[in-house]
């Protein structure tokens, strides 16, 4: 039986004098994918940034496996956040983008090479390692961004509107691919979207 790994209690956040997040409570279990569905501007991305340690909540607590990490810096949480706009480095190759987080964590050169190769295979991007990201399609960029996020083996995966920048046909296709990848990873995941059909998928 899966155990709770993430417990969020009473998260509040005001933005420019307006209440954006109002006492959010949430539990996430190991191997679970949880979808947050809501319209644009409802605070979903801010909530992920608070979880990632990139912003502070005004009130509330975040517990990871029983430990309060509310004040823990982002770099010490080992959480992976895939941004809505992918945030890829245009001057780097596909492999260099995927390797970026591993270099920051001071992985060895050989370990980086092996993990990049392994991760690109997971997202079905073998053979793209030397390509420039500016030459990729929207769907290919999405997969590279996912590969970069999962490469350091994060304890928690957070995806912020990962299919939002794609047209409907590609969104439907990659939604199924993404579902399979998340199922195979067994990494607890919080998936944010404004699209109800995508959420159910």
Structural commentary:
The mean pLDDT is 91. The chain has a 4-stranded antiparallel β-sheet with strand order 2-1-4-5, covered by helices on one side. Strands 3-8-7-6 form a 4-stranded parallel β-sheet, with helices on both faces. Helix 3 packs across helix 4. By secondary structure, the protein is of the alpha/beta class. The two termini are 24 Å apart. It is built from 6 helices and 8 strands. The protein is globular, with a radius of gyration of 17 Å. The longest helix is centred in the C-terminal third of the chain and has 18 residues. 35% of the residues lie in helices and 25% in strands.
TL;DR of this structure?
The protein is of the alpha/beta class. Helices cover 35% and strands 25% of the residues. The chain is built from 6 helices and 8 strands.
């Amino acid at each position: 039986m899966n155990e709770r790994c993430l417990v969020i209690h009473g998260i509040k956040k005001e933005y420019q004098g307006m209440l954006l997040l109002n006492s959010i409570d949430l539990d996430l279990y190991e191997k679970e994918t949880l979808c947050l569905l809501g319209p644009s501007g409802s605070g979903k991305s801010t909530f992920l940034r608070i979880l990632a340690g990139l912003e502070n909540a005004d009130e509330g607590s975040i517990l990871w496996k029983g430990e309060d990490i509310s004040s823990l810096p982002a770099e010490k949480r080992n959480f992976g956040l895939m941004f809505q706009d992918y945030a890829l480095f245009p001057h780097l190759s596909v492999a260099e983008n995927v390797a970026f987080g591993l270099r920051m964590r001071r992985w060895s050169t050989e370990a980086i090479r092996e993990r990049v190769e392994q991760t690109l295979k997971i997202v079905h991007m073998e053979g793209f390692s030397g390509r420039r990201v500016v030459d990729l399609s929207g769907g290919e960029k999405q997969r590279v961004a996912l590969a970069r996020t999962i490469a350091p083996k994060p304890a928690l995966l957070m995806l912020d509107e990962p299919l939002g920048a794609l047209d409907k046909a590609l969104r439907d296709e990659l939604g199924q691919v993404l579902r399979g990848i998340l199922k195979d990873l067994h990494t607890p995941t919080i998936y944010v979207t404004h699209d109800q059909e995508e959420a159910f998928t």
